Automatic annotation (TrEMBL):
Record flagged with keyword Signal: yes
InterPro entries according to UniProt: FG-GAP (IPR013517), Integrin_alpha_N (IPR028994)
Protein name per its UniProtKB record: VCBS repeat-containing protein
SUPFAM superfamilies assigned to the protein according to its UniProt record, in alphabetical order: Integrin alpha N-terminal domain
Pfam family, one: FG-GAP
Length: 101
């Protein structure tokens, strides 16, 4: 995983305002650009336990051929689920993902 730009987010509006079992906010998910490795990663917490800061790594996209550019996220269509747009910088392509089931 090459260093790139990280951004924190929550997969749903409900999760973003909800509280963990200890009454504190949920830990955020992290979007991470792999930059020249051609991948966009999502890191998500193992748990909301305050003494467990281990995150799982998921490859959101593996272009296998292009530099990943900047990403943007938000609930673009107002359905309560986070959407993610990733730029395939060197080929001029956009990739769109949603957390809607």
């Amino acid at each position: 995983m090459s260093p790139g730009s990280p951004k924190t987010f929550y997969p749903t509006a409900e999760f973003a305002v909800g509280l963990a079992e200890d009454g504190l906010p949920h830990k955020p998910y992290i979007l991470l650009s792999g930059d020249d490795d051609g991948r966009m990663y999502v890191l998500f917490p193992n748990s909301d336990a305050r003494d467990d800061w281990v995150y799982q790594k998921h490859i959101l996209i593996d272009t296998e051929k292009t530099t990943i550019g900047k990403m943007a996220h938000g609930d673009f269509d107002g359905d309560g689920f986070e959407d993610v747009v990733v730029a395939g910088y060197s080929i001029g392509q956009l990739y769109l993902f949603t957390y809607k089931p």
